Amino acid sequence: MYKIGLKLILIGLLVTIGYEGYGQDSSGAITEKQYLSGTGKDDLVEWDFFCSEGRNSGKWTTIGVPSCWEQQGFGAYNYGQDPMDERAKEYGLYKHTFSVPKDWKEKEVKIVFEGVMTDAEVRINGELAGEVHQGAFYEFNYAITDLLKPDGQENLLEVRVDKVSSNESINYAERKADFWVFGGIFRPVYLEALPREHIDRVAIDAGANGEIRADLYLNAPNASDVNAHLYSMNGDLVQKLGDIELKKSSGIWSVHAQAEDIETWNPEQPNLYWLALAIEDQNGNVLHEIKERIGFRTVEVLEGDGIYVNGQRIKFKGVNRHSFYPTSGRTTSKELSIEHVQMMKDMNMNAVRMSHYPPDVHFLDVCDSLGLFVIDEVCTWHSPHLDTEVGEKIVKETVVRDVNHPSILLWANGNETGWNTELDEDYAIWDIQKREVIHPWNIFNKTNTLHYFQYHALANDGYAKEKILFPTEFLHGLYDGGHGAGLEDYWELMWDMPQSAGGFLWDFADEAVVRTDKNGKLDTDGNHAADGIVGPYGEKEASYYTIKEIWSPIYIEERTIREGFNGVFRVENRHHFTNLAECTLEAKWMRFGMVGSSEPSKVLFEESITFPDMAPGEKGKLSVDRPDGWQQADALHLTAIDPEGKEIYTWSYPVQSPAEYHQHRLDYGAEGKLTSTTSGKLIKVSTNEMDYSFSKENGLLVEVMKEGKLIPLKNGPILFDHDDKVDTLMVEATEDKVEITVRFEERDKTPEWTTHVELSSDIVKWTVYPNGLLDLWVEMKGEKRVKGFKGFTFSFPEKDVEGMKWLGDGPYRVWRNRMKGTRFQVWENDYNNTVTGETAYDYPEFKGFYSSLYWLEVVGRDNNGFTVYSHSPHLFMRMLTPEAPSEDQHGRVTVKFPEGDISFLKNIPAIGTKFQHSDTMGPHGKSENYFGNDDEPIVTKLTFKF
């Protein structure tokens, strides 16, 4: 499981690029790195370990490093809101022996800890390396040259890690937060060897105009000059930076140079370079050379206006993200960072907030290289805030480590009232770029970063309306609520608001930890950590695709394809830096397989279209060819492709109405013999294979038998919110069909806003054909305003459902305020009982509402399923009833389902968030539906085939 050994890495240009321009061997003037631990969750090195309390405590054993010791079977699990006294005594002792290369005797050696939870006391060969470090998420180091044994002898590293800090403000900031808290050396540990005279660190500001400013922090009394070279990412020399302006002060040199013809950095084109800086003595000998990866970009926060990058005002499409993995806790890996950033980019996000602490450095590296804006944050949780003395150290450690990442645009001084305002000015001390500081969930400086506001707050009519509206958390995604649900309403208003800078969803992934003390159970601590767009292992929930569509940087205006379709689509370029002509559009006219057929979908016609020349923010039109016979296609799929060849989104448009689609696909003329009888309370209709029984009292389907085998569809159609009595029931039988018509009593449907009396009646009609097909016609009086459900339902035992196949929107279920993110085509889902964010994480969830139904094949467990065809447009199908999540105390993300098992509806409910009921989340979240017509009946026609 663990790897034992040391890894030696040369840090500098030696391994990647040459030394053009120097004319001498400077290989001894670089930085070397030797890992004492592994590099991440999948690469551990075994150390000796002693745990003081809980599981496997009171004895020396071994543990893999880096890791959270709970995940290695030690100590006790704690969520941040657990009582502190339960964990205050828990500490771990680590021992590890190592040696260093003999040629390091002329080097300056440091030991670097990327992250330790929480207080760390470090000894080398029995001697303290320095003061105890406090704070879990921050990189720290000690100079240990004088503590090492010479000539390659073995050295002893000892570390004591206290899970709970002796600094109470650290505990309030980190250990009493709303997330899992762990113990241990959870990030890598390594040695760093530098030349005796060296550059300790460098802070760089590379502007969009090519201007480079750098502060070099030196420990090099004999340094006389500095050289700078710019290299491409593959190591090719781009240019030697001449005419360097150099200002020297005690221990700090300030470099000013100009790069020419550079490509700027932004999330859409994350262009990066290597900047090599070398200090020389008066004879031109290289004393030390370092390289830093940089991106040229300029950030401006303009009061009363917005946040600008390279002169472009930005709408942040962001998410909050913790460093987390189920089996390893806070210990992650570069591979996981790549996976997470790729998923964010795939959702068309352009930003991420580091909630609520600085991430692994490799996550920031990936944000730089793949392209995401970053808010980097110091960890605090509500109040009281960090005390100033320890807070100053933490701010310094954060900024010094992360200062050169072009992805970082802003610093966040804590979270939700946890900020210490005495620290606000400290960021600029260490940040050469002087990036702005924000207070998440606060009106501070130039921004209003309110959290979890209701939709009406976007009126922005408060006393701080001149501030940039920049919510760092909104639409809290507990279970299946929030995230995509409500986003369309929020985003369309935010996009059009000049002073809205976008915002950040809460949050990226469910933090379900694998409990090593509970047989591997996935635990989200109730509803505290079930907040993700994806599951703990990256399982994609429905909101993933809703966000992908709503945040697409290419906006295509909604439209319907019918006979008069002219091929024109109105589009808007919502990129910030990409001309639309750099993207392409693939148009495919699709034909789908028939019901009961294994025939795959096929493309009838396709073309590749270049988007028109449209700068960011511009609107225009594009045209799709209409080939001969396009009307015979089932759907048009439009796929936008970005300049790198990746899908932005695929939109889908049915070409025919349901009635047109089925017109030549259903055969009512097949031969058969019909008989009908009335006996007692039943009306029985039989064909060659089928026997139907209907209630004589109300026309409900009572029983379906096929060749003597029961098909358990029954007890329908029951009309929702309907208690009218039957007025008449008629049976008409001919050789061609048997019709059973139920007419209900007329009732007063007078709207409350008028005194004109309107009487209406609802009608249900069954038609049985000789070949066994069964038509259902349901006619309901139209209503302008519908408060309940408009539709009807049947019973079908859940135990008999094995799966379903359908033509319609899918593969995910929908809510009224989360309709986007689906695609119209044939889908097939197996039964599951997933409760989103709580059990199984088997997506798509099976149970729920599905939109744009054309046909549905219900797969029965005992070959007792059936197929139903919809002839009516805009029909929703309800498949069973999802279980309610166990900890939704306020009922905001538990949606009320109507009675029955399989239903057909003209309207469906919305879903809320952890902090809001749906009706405060915008127009799509309202419980009432406005159909706009009470003169015409609402008709639903279905055909059943058994």
UniProtKB/TrEMBL annotation:
Keywords: Calcium, Glycosidase, Hydrolase. This is beta-galactosidase. Residues 303-519 form the Glycoside hydrolase family 2 catalytic domain. One of its GO terms (cellular component) is beta-galactosidase complex. InterPro entries: B-gal_small/dom_5, Bact_Beta-galactosidase, Beta-gal/glucu_dom_sf, Gal_mutarotase_sf_dom, Galactose-bd-like_sf, GH, GH-type_carb-bd, Glyco_hydro_2. Coiled coil: none annotated. Residues 61-195 form the Glycosyl hydrolases family 2 sugar binding domain. GO terms for biological process: lactose catabolic process. One of its GO terms (molecular function) is beta-galactosidase activity. Monomer. It catalyses: Hydrolysis of terminal non-reducing beta-D-galactose residues in beta-D-galactosides. The keyword Nucleotide-binding does not apply. Transmembrane segments: none annotated. Residues 202-297 form the Glycoside hydrolase family 2 immunoglobulin-like beta-sandwich domain.
